[in-house]
Specification:
The complex is a heterodimer.
Chain A (H helix, E strand, L loop, with lengths): L13 H29 L3 H28 L8 H38 L8 E8 L8 E4 L12 E4 L3 E9 L4 E5 L6 E6 L4 E9 L2 E7 L9 E3 L7 E9 L6 E7 L9 E5 H12 L2
Antiparallel strand pairs in A: 1-2, 1-12, 2-5, 3-4, 3-12, 4-5, 6-7, 7-8, 8-11, 9-10, 10-11
Chain B lengths: L1 H16 L2 H14 L5 H13 L14 H26 L1
Helix pairs in contact in B: 1-2, 1-3, 3-4
The chains are: A alpha+beta, B mainly alpha.
Chain lengths: ~290, ~90
């Protein structure tokens, strides 16, 4: 007897399963295609072209955001009490007076240092290019800055970047037409040679991000909070100021944490060493 | 549609005016609120292209953020599905 066709022999959801299977296959193909595209973008020279395009598009937005932020920041006083403003004014005036006195004595010492070096036949003059910070390290997941000087201003990769007070903070790692990416030395995992302590002991500082560094030394070497950490170079170059010294009991080592003075996320201007840049450029051109 | 467009504008604007953790939070919320929120993926590709330099950390790949982001997006989609199923079961 032939089997009667009835709805009980055919699944009511048969067509939906087929549709779902097709949808899943399409989704999987889409994901695979997306991953392939990403690999192609980031592993080929296409990345450079796309990065240049993104920088070109993003630069005016950064400029507008910075300008607007500065303009609106000028009205912050409207939301503060008169008393708090007066207290902050007094505190800042006192700090300014102290800094002015220290700056005057520092300039005298620097001039004396430069004179003594010149007598011995060495000159430590630098020439700087001022650049505005478009994006601070807080704007990105990386410890990088975007500055508004690029290939058009003779900026080349490898140029050292400084802030006020001869503190070196990083180097240019990527250059575009009108902007550049500066990688900070404090990037997590980065190693940076410095000298520390009263005896100027050469050590390696490890970046921990955000302008902070960590150094491990034997306990016998005296280091105190407030000590200046220097970078071995002919011209005065500083890496940071010691914030804290940790000496765990039972260990023969001490951990020193230092950072740049000032707020890295509030950085507005940096200085690029153009003399070093010229030297790098000559070295690159040499056959 | 308009809501998603406005949210996308806010997401990309936060890249320029807010700290990165704010942008990350907005993108994370977007993955949960909107279905197939690929704009978050596009945002982080753009972040990689603008801010990443070859000598930055995670040298295993030229793109340092896509690996953890992909993992996060995968987990976020799973979590969203589970939360949705839990809420649907509760209401039944």
């Amino acid at each position: 007897m032939p089997k009667k066709y009835s709805s009980q022999h055919q699944s009511l959801t048969g067509f939906r399963h087929d549709r779902d299977r097709v949808q899943r296959r399409k989704r999987l193909l889409g994901i695979l295609l997306g991953c392939t595209l990403l690999v192609l973008v980031f592993r080929t020279p296409v990345e450079g072209a796309l990065a240049t395009l993104m920088q070109f598009i993003a630069r005016p937005f950064f400029v507008v955001a910075n300008t607007t932020g500065e303009h609106l920041g000028g009205y912050a006083y409207l939301f503060r009490s008169k008393e708090s403003l007066a207290d902050e004014n007094k505190r800042l005036k006192d700090a300014l007076d102290l800094v002015a006195v220290e700056a005057a004595s520092r300039e005298m010492l620097r001039a004396e240092n430069d004179y003594l070096k010149s007598v011995l036949g060495r000159h430590s003059d630098r020439s700087f290019l001022l650049a505005r910070v478009l994006a601070s390290p807080g704007s990105s997941p990386y410890d990088t800055l975007i500055i508004d000087a690029g290939a058009d201003d003779a900026v080349i990769p490898g140029m050292s970047v400084y802030v006020d007070g001869d503190f070196i903070i990083g180097e240019v790692t990527r250059v575009f037409g009108g902007s550049a990416v500066v990688t900070l030395y404090s990037s997590s995992g980065n190693e940076f040679p410095v000298t520390i302590g009263t005896s100027s002991v050469p050590v390696t500082a490890f970046g921990v991000g955000g302008g902070n560094f960590r150094v491990v030394l034997p306990k016998g070497i005296e280091v105190f909070p407030g000590d200046i950490v220097e970078v071995p170079s002919f011209a005065p170059t500083y890496a940071g100021v010691v914030d804290a010294v940790k000496r765990p009991e039972g260990s023969s080592l001490q951990e020193i944490f230092f950072s740049w003075p000032g707020n890295m996320n509030a950085l507005r201007y940096v200085y690029l060493d153009t003399k070093e840049g010229a030297a790098l450029s000559n070295e690159a051109e040499r056959p | 549609m308009i809501g998603r467009t406005v949210y996308d504008i806010a997401l990309f604007a936060s890249l320029f005016i807010a700290p990165f953790w704010c942008t990350l939070l907005i993108a994370a919320l977007g993955i949960f609120i909107f279905p197939r929120y690929v704009e978050a993926i596009a945002l982080f590709v753009i972040v990689d292209l603008i801010f990443h330099a070859p000598t930055s950390t995670m040298r295993a790949t030229n793109s340092a953020i896509m690996v953890p982001l992909s993992l996060y997006a995968f987990l976020a989609v799973l979590l969203r599905t589970w939360i949705g199923m839990y809420l649907r079961n509760r209401s039944v």
